[in-house]
Amino acid sequence: MAGTGVFAEILDGDVFKYYSEGEWKKSSSGKSVAIINPTTRKTQYKVQACSQQEVNKVMEVSKAAQKLWAKTPLWKRAELLHKAAAILKEQKGPIAECLVKEIAKPAKDAVTEVVRSGDLVSYTAEEGVRILGEGKFLMSDSFPGNERTKYCLTSKIPLGVVLAIPPFNYPVNLAVSKIAPALIAGNSIVLKPPTQGAVAALHMVHCFHLAGFPKGLISCVTGKGSEIGDFLTMHPGVNCISFTGGDTGIAISKKAGMVPLQMELGGKDACIVLEDADLDLVAVNIIKGGFSYSGQRCTAVKVVLVMESVAEALVEKVKAKVAKLTVGPPEDNSDITPVVSESSANFIEGLVIDAKQKGATFCQEYKREGNLIWPLLLDHVRPDMRIAWEEPFGPVLPVIRINSIEEGIHHCNASNFGLQGCVFTKDINKAILISDAMETGTVQINSAPARGPDHFPFQGIKDSGIGSQGITNSINMMVKVKSTVINLPSPSYTMG
Q1: Candidate list 220, 271, 298, 363, residue with the active-site label
Q2: Residues 315-354: pLDDT tens digits?
Q3: Residue 220 bears catalytic tag
Q4: How far apart are alpha carbons 94 and 97 in whole angstroms?
């Protein structure tokens, strides 16, 4: 159970504490933030509403702890990360329970997220030891006009305090994907979890606490974005920001100043289906890509661009599979569960109404109860409909029929998003040509978009983000290069 057993110390009455200086604390504000269960639409948990003064203290402590942590041997950092990973996987039950109740993630998927997170932490420890244990040795005479009078030694050193802000849909996995690279690289971490998902994140942080990391190295502050959001992202103590979410990220990037940014801000991932595609394979991947976790994934298939000649057959195959999707509470491992909030459900409904008014074909009857929206495939969608461009983040998928490959590429590239896309064809030459033409960070060939495996590079262009993620890329993003140049009194050469 959440907040019991080894997690008992993180709960005070009915309010979960925040984490600072290696201790679980109550906020001096005396206020809390309610977390609404998307299924019951009632308050499930409460977390501390931290103040700006408490944020200041966290930053002060983080900076001091980082200085000591940077002197900790790399093998020791890795050892602690492996220990945290093991505890995280041991405690998958209580953490998964939080994910079910906070974000309506199906129970089986919730457990998978926690286990995957433990694996990510372990892999990061191993990768960090490999890539941070190496440096470069350069000699001056490779550049014209120089003798060999300078030896340059380069190494990778930590940035300082990393601010990590994960989204509601993967509040554990997308938190550790920031925390583990930051820690192995010698940084300290300040985590600001999303409101929906905060309690799961607090439980995850406690696993790092139990692993025995130094006090002050890891902090987790909860509270209202209006109170501490801008205060955190513009804080002079922050040396790097890793953010996953939506439009807020664009605002952060404009305010952050001279701070390295790693941002993933959503997508409108296009699925281009050619005439020679295996339609059964396409249908399976459209269901997996468009409707898993009720479509609440940045890498969900968000628009299907299918050649007119095979559109009818594909739509029929997808319709048959949609009919088999189970709809209900996450505790029952339903395929389609309530979306995260009433405001999200209202936004999705607005897109559906717009499509209906403009003549889209509804392959199923639109049905909604509270935050629960039944899966909906919209055929004959046109570019003048909002659903053709906007990201629903729900179980609603538009199909646009196209008459040429160029038309599909044009629609994909006209989007302000550019996270991922996918192409289905048996012709590898066409697949590569289309992949090269698509303005997205990743293109999947004959598979739905996906962020993992977690060591693969993951990045977006345009409004989809800044920088690249994936374990190796994240480690490299959270360090800077330090050069030490040895100047010799006369040129030095090896034996000739």
Answers
A1: 298
A2: 999 999 999 999 999 999 999 999 999 999 999 999 999 9
A3: no
A4: 5
